[in-house]
Each structure stands twice: as C-alpha cells, then as structure tokens.
Amino acid sequence: MLDDKKTIFSGIQPSGFVTLGNYLGAINNWIKLQNDYNCFYCIADLHTITVRQEPAKFRKTAVELLMQYIAAGLDPEINIIYCQSHVHQHAELSWILSCFTYMGELQRMTQFKEKSQKHSDNINAGLFTYPVLMASDILLYQTELVPVGEDQKQHLEITREIASRFNKIYGDVFKIPEVYIPKAGARVMALQDPSKKMSKSDENANNTVAIMDKPEIIMSKFKKAVTDSENEVRFSETKPGVSNLINIYCAVTGNTIEQTEKEFSSGGYGVFKKAVGEAVVAKLEPIQKKFYDLQNNKDYIDTIIKNNTERASYVAEKTIRKVKKKIGFLPKV
Ligand code: TYM
Fold this sequence. Notes:
The longest helix has 30 residues, at 298-327. The chain folds into 2 domains: 7-185 and 298-327, HUPs (Rossmann fold, 3-Layer(aba) Sandwich); 205-292, Tyrosyl-Transfer RNA Synthetase (Orthogonal Bundle). It has helices spanning 20-33, 45-48, 55-72, 89-98, 103-107, 110-118, 125-140, 153-170, 215-223, 240-253, 257-263, 268-295, 298-327; strands at 7-12, 38-43, 79-83, 145-147, 178-180.
C-alpha cells in the first residue's frame, strides 16, 4: 500500500487560518518533501480541544485547514491528508503511551507551562498529556522524519524518549523519528513584537499574517511591522524586527541572508518592508486562488477525506495491533 520510501508525519491544529509561520515553518517544507517520502499530514483536531471550541466554527476551520493544505500544494493523491479524530487509533495509542510517560517529563514541557498561563481558567489534563498524543500521532505511522517549526523541538525529543523506552521493554516496535527544522522560516516572529512567535491565537491581528489574508491587508501589516531606529537591513540578534523580516524574505524567495542584506543595502526600511510584503503576496496569491476554487468543490473534498482516512487507518491499525500484542492484551476472537 505504501512505496518503499521513508515515512513523514506532521500536522497543524485547526484553531484558525494557517499563519505565515505555519506555512514557512511547516507546510512549505512538506511540499518540498512530498515526492521523496510517504507522507501523512493530519488536521490535528484532537489537540485543538484542549482549548474550548465553538462546534460549528471548529468544523469549518477543520475542513478549511484541509483545503489550505491542498491549496498550498500538497497533492492529496500522493500525500495522506486526513483528520486525526477520524482515525481512532491516535487516541488509543495515546492512552497506552501515557502509561509509559512520566509526570516529571510532562511538567518540564515549555508549551504546557506557556499554555497553562494563557488559559489559567482551563488547565485540563489534556493540556498536560498533549505531548503524549503528539508522540502517538508520530509513532503510529512508523515515522522517520517530522518536519516542524522550532517550537515543536521539545515535543519531538519526548517522542523519541517514549519510543525508546517502549522499545527497550518490548523490542523494536517503533521507529525512532528525527526532527526536520528548516533553515529559514523555522521561527517566524510576531510583526509587532518580534520577541514572541507569530501565532494563530494572537489577539493583535497586526502580529500575524494569515495565508488567506487579502493582498492589501498583507501589505499593510508589513508596512506597520516593527523595526528599529537604525535604517540598516542587517541580520543581528540586536535587530529582532529587521532580522525577522529578513528571515521571512529568505524563506519566501529562497535567497540567503547575505544576498538579502546586499539587495537592500540602500533604500532603507520603507523599501525593504514593501519588498517583503510583495514577495509574500506573490507567494500566497496562487494559494488563495486555489483555496477559493476548492470551496466550490465539496464533493472532491469529501472524497479525499474518505479515501485518505481509510489509507491512514490501515497503517495505524497495523501498529496498534503490534503494540497490543507486545503488551500482552488478550487478542480479540
Ligand atoms: P501548530 O498548529 O501550533 O503549528 C503547526 C506547525 O507550524 C509550526 N509553526 C511555526 N513555524 C515557524 N514560525 C512560527 N511562528 C510557527 N508557528 C507554528 C509549528 O512548529 C508546527 O510545525 N502540536 C502541533 C500539531 C501536531 C503535530 C503532531 C506536529 C499534532 N501532532 C505530530 C507534528 C507531529 C501544533 O500544535 O502545531
């Protein structure tokens, strides 16, 4: 059913429109890798309910995320694009692996600390065991490579730890996955506050560019982006705003930092910000057009969901059976 290629797994939460951060940190690389690997890309909706969701909006966001995957260039014929909650084995493996994960390990997770601060009125157990579900997503498909942004690195480390622990007891059940983090775009920062990462849930709309933002909105967000009091396009830790824009420009155009610094050595920030905005618009416009076409093609989307769920479930079931057998659960008759 799968080619003799290595396996990739990754996912995005349906908690809003895909941001430029999600696109440059994750999807853009998925597209580059899609022909060389067997790829599983999920709509990570089980993860999303750690924060309360309004049902109708949640459903819409999930299907729109799937459409954004395809519009961005992921071919649903060669990639297995599906919804996590449609493949029950994710939740099943998550329970099993939670019995092989220590409280102390989960307490150390930066994302848990950050999210429990942000949602202090709803610090649920799911928020705490979130990394176990993520490990289950990855391990269920015998994944070898996980292309993600830098913020997911710690989750990959714990995944490797859980897999190794399980393998030590039961033999080689899981492949141990490697993380794949892009050179440019691994950490896109908020445009108004480059000390924090660009995030779907940011309250200040000017911090975030969504891949579905209209061109004039994108241009205006880049125009307003925070820089510094110098007027020099130079990559430096002491220039977080400008460095973030350079990073975005490099990720979108494929240019190096040196090339970018040279290209904008005169003209100042105004010219540079306009060029970054234009490069982003040029990259996103065809994606937006394809997204609108897909919106009129509901049957096609339904067929993709149906076929890909079956393909994912088949592989997931193989792993879960093996896991249950190794643990010693009574076989089903
Ligand atoms: P999520 O939905 O927060 O983000 C999805 C992907 O986008 C990357 N990303 C960024 N990259 C660069 N700059 C940014 N500002 C930025 N913001 C987000 C993330 O690193 C990620 O690659 N738990 C995951 C989803 C998930 C998953 C998985 C990922 C569920 N199961 C298994 C990999 C493997 C999450 O919340 O990602």
